[in-house]
């Protein structure tokens, strides 16, 4: 019982192929316009792809080619929770949740019982008699989750379910999702790395309609390959060719580090020329006005492009690189956009791994 | 919330709905009010002029004469029947125009709206040459012993012909505003298209359907040209209130004025009771993100880029 999908939409330059196991949650991440929501709509049956096929267990969701097939959304067993709760405004909360079971042919009493069960699961039983207009955003989204679960979908699609919630309701829904997603198959589109870490077993990163990275969440975040995944993980990542413990990068010169990943055991292939990445956190970067002397450290001459608050620190951006410094250091250095400075990183802080 | 957002369109939160204070500032120049007043007077003054002409002393006898009562009764009956016809055929038409995608859709819409712009007499002639004794279909019907022209059925058909576009236009607009997002969600919850129509779409567009039906009823009530051409003017059979008024105009102006007033009164009551100001869609339903991409509607869906970029 897995979801197997590959689909193309020429108009949107979408070309993806993925599979989701029986009790697995897959996080889909990527920059705006990457095609994440398009992917969700294809699986839900709201959008017809130009080519490809998808199966959910024994059921074929769609298939193009000589014997085309298209299963309408109501026959797919795929639940959907979008950014907007989209509770039916003319039905009470209870009737909203009972809508799915009713549509499946269950009787009124039985549907109500199912609805009450799921409202209880999302801690919203006391809202049963209300109208959707009388709910807060967080309450409405919880009810929408109960409504999606009440049909017992074989696959649950979550399209940025927390994006429209205020910062007080999001954590509650997140832990609620963690509870109900256990033992289910789900795909969650999200912008927050916390969602991926908490809710997903695996992550795919999309960009321009393609999957550019995929793997277990921890592994992708530890060794990001795409710049998007690097920014998710909060890491500076430079690409280049690896020789020994050096990465020759195009934009930052030679970077020294320690070998990790598959390089750690086997070392780098003799002769060099292997593609590799060098990653280091902004907190490991020190900022100097003049190049420091002596120690074996990486030193990048850069021009500051942006300064922004980042927790207790100030994040100093210089093109693709970032450094976190304390407000006191910031005051000492007197930085402003355009300042020419040196980003310095100890070799021990730089992880080098294969591309 | 952006600084310039209207207070009443903010996201509904607990307690926020109650404390809606409307903006004091309205961007309507004063000269617009002057023109609007002139426009309103243009409609209201003639009504006033007619009311002033009503012979109140004889009003009750005038409107309760045999011919008047027969005409009023016939008008109400036929207008009700025509409204029923408009609902039965207009709702599917509006659904198809608003939701489906097919070639020739624009042309179909234009043709269906034709009765709005064609003089009713022309509509009556068209009906005559189609359903009349010598008409396209009427010829076969009359061989089968069915004669439509100059019957009460003809009155209903003439009224439905001119009134249908009002219902279709009103309902199609409501359907488009309501969008397909609730329908898409209902489908993912396992509801078949017929269930979605019955439990989601129709309840959501009910206000639009009601106002469309009211407009259709009002238009049917006032129908004159097509009725006279296709159905004639037989007392109790095809002579509706407008026809009666036109007939009385020459012989008994007092009766014509009294009946006109009655017709206006009926129309005002019906419209006033049921027609509501078109409401803005609920703020939440109107936000353009998420499920906009209804099945087959890909061409109209904003590209992922566009919608994503709108996120704060």
Written description of the protein model:
The complex is a heterodimer of chains A (355) and B (312). Chain A has helices at 36-44, 93-103, 108-121, 137-149, 169-181, 193-199, 217-222, 227-233, 262-266, 327-333; strands spanning 3-9, 14-20, 25-29, 51-56, 59-63, 69-70, 78-81, 155-159, 186-189, 202-207, 210-216, 236-243, 246-249, 253-256, 258-259, 274-280, 285-288, 297-303, 306-310, 313-318, 321-325, 340-346, 351-354. Chain A is of the alpha+beta class. In chain A, a hairpin with a 4-residue loop joins strand 1 (3-9) and strand 2. In chain A, helix 2 (93-103) crosses helix 3 (108-121) and helix 3 (108-121) packs across helix 4. Chain A starts with a strand and ends with a strand. The mean pLDDT of chain A is 89. Chain B contains 15 helices and no strands. Chain B starts with 29 loop residues before the first helix and ends with a helix. Chains A and B meet through helix 1, strand 7, helix 2 and helix 4 of A and helix 9, helix 10 and helix 15 of B.
């Amino acid at each position: 019982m897995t979801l197997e999908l590959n689909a193309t939409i020429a108009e949107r330059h979408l070309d993806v192929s993925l599979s989701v196991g029986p009790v697995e949650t897959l996080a889909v991440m990527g920059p705006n316009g990457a095609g994440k929501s398009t992917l969700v709509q294809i699986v839900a049956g709201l959008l017809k792809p130009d080519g490809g096929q998808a199966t959910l267990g024994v059921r074929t969701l769609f298939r193009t080619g000589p014997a085309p097939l298209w299963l309408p959304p109501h026959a797919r067993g795929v639940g959907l929770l979008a950014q907007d709760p989209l509770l039916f405004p003319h039905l009470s909360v209870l009737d909203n949740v009972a809508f799915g079971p009713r549509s499946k042919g269950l009787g009124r009493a039985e549907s109500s019982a199912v609805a009450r069960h799921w409202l209880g699961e999302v801690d919203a039983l006391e809202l049963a008699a209300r109208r959707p207009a009388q709910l807060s955003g967080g309450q409405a989204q919880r009810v929408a989750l109960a409504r999606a679960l009440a049909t017992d979908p074989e696959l649950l699609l979550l399209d940025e379910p927390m994006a429209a919630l205020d910062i007080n309701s999001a954590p509650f829904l997140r832990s609620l999702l963690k509870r109900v997603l256990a033992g289910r198959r789900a795909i969650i589109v999200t912008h927050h790395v916390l969602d991926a870490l908490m809710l997903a077993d695996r992550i795919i990163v999309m960009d321009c309609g393609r999957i550019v990275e995929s793997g277990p969440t921890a592994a992708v975040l530890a060794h990001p390959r795409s710049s998007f995944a690097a920014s998710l993980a909060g890491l500076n990542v430079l690409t280049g060719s690896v020789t020994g413990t050096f990465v020759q990068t195009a934009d930052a010169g030679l970077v020294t580090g320690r070998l990790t990943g598959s390089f750690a055991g086997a070392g780098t292939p003799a002769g060099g020329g292997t593609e590799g990445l060098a990653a280091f956190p902004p907190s490991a970067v020190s900022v100097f006005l003049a190049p420091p002397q002596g120690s074996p450290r990486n030193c990048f001459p850069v021009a500051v492009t942006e300064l922004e608050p980042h927790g207790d620190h100030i994040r100093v951006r210089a093109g693709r690189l970032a450094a976190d410094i304390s407000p006191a250091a910031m005051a000492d250095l007197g930085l402003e956009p355009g300042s020419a400075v040196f980003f310095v990183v100890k070799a021990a802080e730089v992880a080098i791994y294969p591309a | 919330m952006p600084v310039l957002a209207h207070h009443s369109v903010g996201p509904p939160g607990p307690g926020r709905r109650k404390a809606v204070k409307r903006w004091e500032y309205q961007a309507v120049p004063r000269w617009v009010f002057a023109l609007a007043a002139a426009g309103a007077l243009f409609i209201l003054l003639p009504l006033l002029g007619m009311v002033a002409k009503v012979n109140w002393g004889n009003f009750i006898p005038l409107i309760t004469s045999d011919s008047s009562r027969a005409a009023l009764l016939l008008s109400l009956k036929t207008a009700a029947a025509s409204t029923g016809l408009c609902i039965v055929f207009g709702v599917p038409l509006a659904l198809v125009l608003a939701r489906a995608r097919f070639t020739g859709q624009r042309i179909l819409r234009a043709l269906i709206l034709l009765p709005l712009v064609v003089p009713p007499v022309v509509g009556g002639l068209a009906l005559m040459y189609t359903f009349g004794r010598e008409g396209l279909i009427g010829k076969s019907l009359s061989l089968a012993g069915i004669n439509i022209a100059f019957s009460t059925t003809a009155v209903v058909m003439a009224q439905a012909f001119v009134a249908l576009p009002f219902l279709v236009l009103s309902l199609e607009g409501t359907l488009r505003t309501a969008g397909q997002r609730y329908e898409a969600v209902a489908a993912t919850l396992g509801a078949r298209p017929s269930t979605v129509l019955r439990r989601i779409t129709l309840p959501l567009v009910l206000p639009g359907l009601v106002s469309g039906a009211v407009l259709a009823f009002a238009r049917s009530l006032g129908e004159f040209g097509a009725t006279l051409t296709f159905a004639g003017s037989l007392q109790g059979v095809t002579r509706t209130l407008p026809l009666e008024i036109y007939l009385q105009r020459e012989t008994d102006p007092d009766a014509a004025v009294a009946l006109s007033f009655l017709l206006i009164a009926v129309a005002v009551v019906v419209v006033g009771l049921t027609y509501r100001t078109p409401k803005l869609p609920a703020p939440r339903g109107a936000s353009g993100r998420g499920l906009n991409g209804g099945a087959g509607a890909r061409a109209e869906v904003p590209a992922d880029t566009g919608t994503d970029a709108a996120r704060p």
